[in-house]
Amino acid sequence: VIQGCDASILISTKPGSRELAEKEAEEGFDTVHKAKALVESKCPGAVSCSDILAIAARDFVHLAGGPYYQVKKGRWDGKFSKSTTVANNIPRANSTVDELLNLFASKGLSLQDMVVLSGAHTIGFAHCKQFVGRLYNYRGTKRPDPEMDPRLLKALRMSCPQFGGGAGVVAPFDVTTPFLFDHAYYGNLEGKLGLLASDQGLALDPRTGPVVRLLGKDKERFFEWFAVAMEKMGSVGVKRGRRHGERRRDCTVHVS
């Protein structure tokens, strides 16, 4: 994740350590741990946590209706995992297009890759805190984001009050087909139905808007480009050999 697809996101914080691991900044990897346990019972020490994580992501996309693509294997697991490195290495809910382009470029990913990978928001949910600013006080204006459909604004305000509530409430990134991996995400952005400011900005920016419009009309192209972009992202910061990585039996614990 931070240094590439090396499963560092699965490492647990060491007991008593003041340095939190990456996963403390995110939630939920039970499925990967269960898959790893099953693989270890059949082929001990043969498959890295990194490869299992990459394969699990592919299978989840496919089971939700998305493309089935080949996953390159042979990664080793990374040794570095700190929560303090997360914020500056992943897209934020209020990231500008410039910030997104710079972040993805730092990983060797293009503008097209960025827009295509953002399409993963065709499934999934966000907590109120990630978008509540758009509903009441967008960028300090004390008004809602004018680039949000009024019907969506009204519905989200009912679930997410400005103060004192909604901590456990989530809303789907894709308000039209939230459980289906399709290209509706892009059509939503054109209709001002993006949940996050970072998503909606893709439709508004003259550099990324044409890609949004193209993918909104062409599901097959989105699936094709998504598979290619996932392969590229899966090759970022790959660890090979003991000098740079390890093969963990338990994905939550370093080998040494």
Automatic annotation (TrEMBL):
<feature type="binding site">
    <location>
        <position position="4"/>
    </location>
    <ligand>
        <name>Ca(2+) 1</name>
    </ligand>
</feature>
<dbReference type="GO" id="GO:0042744">
    <property type="term" value="P:hydrogen peroxide catabolic process"/>
</dbReference>
<feature type="binding site">
    <location>
        <position position="174"/>
    </location>
    <ligand>
        <name>Ca(2+) 2</name>
    </ligand>
</feature>
<feature type="binding site">
    <location>
        <position position="91"/>
    </location>
    <ligand>
        <name>substrate</name>
    </ligand>
</feature>
<dbReference type="InterPro" id="IPR019793">
    <property type="entry name" value="Peroxidases_heam-ligand_BS"/>
</dbReference>
<dbReference type="GO" id="GO:0006979">
    <property type="term" value="P:response to oxidative stress"/>
</dbReference>
<feature type="domain" description="Plant heme peroxidase family profile">
    <location>
        <begin position="1"/>
        <end position="255"/>
    </location>
</feature>
<dbReference type="GO" id="GO:0140825">
    <property type="term" value="F:lactoperoxidase activity"/>
</dbReference>
<dbReference type="InterPro" id="IPR002016">
    <property type="entry name" value="Haem_peroxidase"/>
</dbReference>
<keyword id="KW-0479">Metal-binding</keyword>
<feature type="binding site">
    <location>
        <position position="122"/>
    </location>
    <ligand>
        <name>Ca(2+) 2</name>
    </ligand>
</feature>
<protein>
    <recommendedName>
        <fullName>peroxidase</fullName>
        <ecNumber>1.11.1.7</ecNumber>
    </recommendedName>
</protein>
<dbReference type="GO" id="GO:0046872">
    <property type="term" value="F:metal ion binding"/>
</dbReference>
<feature type="binding site">
    <location>
        <position position="6"/>
    </location>
    <ligand>
        <name>Ca(2+) 1</name>
    </ligand>
</feature>
<feature type="disulfide bond">
    <location>
        <begin position="128"/>
        <end position="160"/>
    </location>
</feature>
<dbReference type="Pfam" id="PF00141">
    <property type="entry name" value="peroxidase"/>
</dbReference>
<keyword id="KW-1015">Disulfide bond</keyword>
<comment type="function">
    <text>Removal of H(2)O(2), oxidation of toxic reductants, biosynthesis and degradation of lignin, suberization, auxin catabolism, response to environmental stresses such as wounding, pathogen attack and oxidative stress. These functions might be dependent on each isozyme/isoform in each plant tissue.</text>
</comment>
<dbReference type="GO" id="GO:0020037">
    <property type="term" value="F:heme binding"/>
</dbReference>
<feature type="binding site">
    <location>
        <position position="177"/>
    </location>
    <ligand>
        <name>Ca(2+) 2</name>
    </ligand>
</feature>
<feature type="binding site">
    <location>
        <position position="8"/>
    </location>
    <ligand>
        <name>Ca(2+) 1</name>
    </ligand>
</feature>
<keyword id="KW-0349">Heme</keyword>
<dbReference type="InterPro" id="IPR010255">
    <property type="entry name" value="Haem_peroxidase_sf"/>
</dbReference>
<keyword id="KW-0575">Peroxidase</keyword>
<feature type="binding site" description="axial binding residue">
    <location>
        <position position="121"/>
    </location>
    <ligand>
        <name>heme b</name>
    </ligand>
</feature>
<feature type="binding site">
    <location>
        <position position="182"/>
    </location>
    <ligand>
        <name>Ca(2+) 2</name>
    </ligand>
</feature>
<keyword id="KW-0560">Oxidoreductase</keyword>
<comment type="similarity">
    <text>Belongs to the peroxidase family. Ascorbate peroxidase subfamily.</text>
</comment>
<feature type="disulfide bond">
    <location>
        <begin position="49"/>
        <end position="251"/>
    </location>
</feature>
<keyword id="KW-0964">Secreted</keyword>
<keyword id="KW-0376">Hydrogen peroxide</keyword>
<keyword id="KW-0408">Iron</keyword>
<keyword id="KW-0106">Calcium</keyword>
<dbReference type="InterPro" id="IPR000823">
    <property type="entry name" value="Peroxidase_pln"/>
</dbReference>
<dbReference type="InterPro" id="IPR033905">
    <property type="entry name" value="Secretory_peroxidase"/>
</dbReference>
